[in-house]
Amino acid sequence: MTIRTDWTLDEVHAIYNQPVLELVTQAAAIHAETQATGEVQVCTLLSVKTGGCPEDCAYCPQAARYHTGVQAHKLLPDAEVLASAQRAKDSGSTRFCMGAAWREIRDNRDFDRVLGMVEQVNGLGLEVCCTLGMLNEYQAERLKQAGLYAYNHNLDTSREKYDDIITTRTYDDRLNTLEHVRKAGISVCSGGIIGLGETDEDRIAMLHTLATLPAHPESVPVNALVPVAGTPLADQPRVSVWEMLRMIATARILMPHTMVRLSAGRQEMPVTEQALCFLAGANSIFSGEKLLTTPNPDFDADKQMFALLGLKPRKSFKDVPEGATVLGRTAAVEA
Q1: CB-CB contact of 118 with 146 (8 Å)
Q2: CA distance 152 to 46
Q3: What span, in angstroms and rounded, lies between the C-alpha atoms of 321 and 82?
Q4: Residues of the chain with pLDDT under 50
Q5: Alpha-carbon span 189 to 222, nearest angstrom
Q6: Which residue, 26, 54, 136, 195, could crosslink 239 as a Cys pair with Cβ 3.0–4.6 Å?
Q7: Annotated binding residue 53
Q8: Where does [4Fe-4S] cluster bind (predicted)?
Q9: Is 43 annotated as a binding residue?
Q10: DSSP H helical segments within 186-317, as ranges?
């Protein structure tokens, strides 16, 4: 299958606006052709530094300017992070993501500590991901050298809608960070959130931006807004499964080899709705009781779902040739 990064906005519009059953059928066929069906990447996300963020993202309970009841804390002790990573691995996760509520990385002792965390979690045989805000080329290189496998930096929404949601950093700031990550040879993880009050045209534009980057992101998280009291978007209605299906299926068609992650909002989705999302091309989830500060299905619930649907966890470092060494680990050996 030819992988394209030259999609036109009209083409994306036509794909997204198909009748939903035709869209899901088309996406399922592409998924079967390009991915191991029945295999789902299980990731765990830990907030290693919570709250006190100076940004004004309208959806985020960690912004210091909103009163959301989130208890701010500094960087967790290394031992606590490593213990969480080990529990995640023991529960079936193969990617461990660490998030810090920073606007941007600063070259200081906290960043040095995060680099140490990356090295230690990488030593467990897990794919290590971080989401730490904006970063420059030098910082991306340091993360790569420490053993970072992936870096998450979401676009959140379309360029046109963006200023309604965030004013403390620009859309181009986000794209520049993705470029620094890609240049360092770290896997790019970037997606967005639906339910922010955006239109279908905004959703289509965001997918178009992701699908026309110089290379498709290795992972595209599709998040449904989890409204949090105290944020400007607290009263937004719940996103429907049909909206999630359109996003996931369109992402799968545009970016066939990308991991499409069914991310925030799963706590409100029954297994039947999640099953439809897997059928439409989702093949990655976050498992564990929290996504940074918002609720998420726990490991036991996901194990029951996997058993019911006949799903199995994807192995870590699967895309690396067997026996090759990557970031100090031997690929395709860890479960």
Answers
A1: yes
A2: 13
A3: 27
A4: 322-325, 328-335
A5: 11
A6: 195
A7: yes
A8: 53, 57, 60
A9: no
A10: 200-211, 241-254, 271-279, 299-309
